[in-house]
């Protein structure tokens, strides 16, 4: 460590903004180090001067700190550029339909809704119930058996419901005899825009929701 002596003033008079800049700026840090080093050499005890090894060690320390600060600044800049590239590349998703965790039917294509669900294990019996947002039963679809993993189903509902079908909900009941099989419902929605959230690509959906790209289960 370097200790200032004599007339070295350690009082900080800069504003908060200037203090932050001087702390993170490698050139400022190196300049402060050299000033302290010169002050220490001018005020050292002539009978017990600082030896070369100690000076070399201190110079090596400041070089290490400066290098780390420069590396941090470079990584921050690269992270910002990478995020911007992600958003630009993500524009290719606009207009595509993605599956994300949820239980809405989304917008119909040619009057038919297509949604999906994941099963933890094979199921001998799989039924899908279509309900309104308030929970009123609209229709029940018996899909028979289901395989483990991704399963799709379609529903037109033109004779079942005359309201806004994009607001309908669905649930999956899967069983093997008396044993329930865990399921995860997946909602289809169109991508209308892309953005960045916490340094990651986010997709804006037609229902007003925003989902991280990592949360997309399928694209079609």
From TrEMBL:
**Organism for this UniProt entry:** Comamonas guangdongensis
Q: Which Pfam families match?
A: FlgD, FlgD_ig, FLgD_tudor
Q: Where is the FlgD/Vpr Ig-like domain?
A: 103-173
Q: Does the keyword 4Fe-4S apply?
A: no
Q: Which family does it belong to?
A: Belongs to the FlgD family.
Q: Output this protein's name.
A: Basal-body rod modification protein FlgD
Does Hydrolase show up as a keyword for this record? no
Q: Where is the composition biased (Low complexity)?
A: 8-25
Q: What does UniProt list as this organism's lineage? A: Bacteria, Pseudomonadati, Pseudomonadota, Betaproteobacteria, Burkholderiales
Gene3D superfamilies for the chain: 2.30.30.910, 2.60.40.4070
Give positions of region: Disordered: 1-27
> Which UniProt keywords are present, listed alphabetically?
Bacterial flagellum biogenesis, Cell projection, Cilium, Flagellum
Q: Which InterPro entries match?
A: FlgD (IPR005648), FlgD/Vpr_Ig-like (IPR025965), FLgD_Tudor (IPR025963)
List, for all copies, the residue spans of the domain called FlgD Tudor-like: 85-217
Describe the task this protein carries out.
Required for flagellar hook formation. May act as a scaffolding protein.
């Amino acid at each position: 460590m370097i200790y200032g002596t004599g007339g070295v003033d350690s009082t900080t008079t800069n504003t908060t903004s200037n203090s932050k800049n001087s702390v993170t700026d490698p050139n400022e840090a190196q300049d402060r180090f050299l000033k302290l080093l010169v002050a220490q050499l001018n005020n050292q005890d002539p009978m017990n001067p600082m030896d070369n090894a100690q000076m070399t060690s201190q110079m090596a320390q400041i070089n290490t700190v400066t290098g780390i600060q420069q590396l941090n600044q470079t990584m921050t800049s690269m992270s910002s550029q990478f995020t911007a590239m992600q958003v630009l590349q993500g524009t290719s998703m606009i207009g595509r339909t993605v599956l994300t965790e949820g239980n809405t039917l989304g917008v119909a294509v040619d009057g038919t809704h297509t949604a999906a669900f994941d099963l933890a294990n094979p199921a001998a019996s799989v039924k899908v119930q279509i309900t309104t947002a308030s929970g009123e039963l609209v229709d029940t679809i018996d899909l028979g058996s289901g395989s483990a993993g991704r399963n799709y189903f379609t529903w037109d509902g033109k004779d079942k419901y005359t309201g806004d079908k994009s607001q309908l909900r669905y649930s999956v009941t899967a069983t093997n005899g008396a044993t329930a099989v865990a399921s995860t419902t997946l909602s289809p929605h169109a991508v209308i825009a892309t953005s960045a959230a916490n340094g990651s690509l986010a997709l804006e959906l037609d229902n007003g929701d925003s989902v991280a790209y990592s949360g997309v289960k399928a694209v079609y």
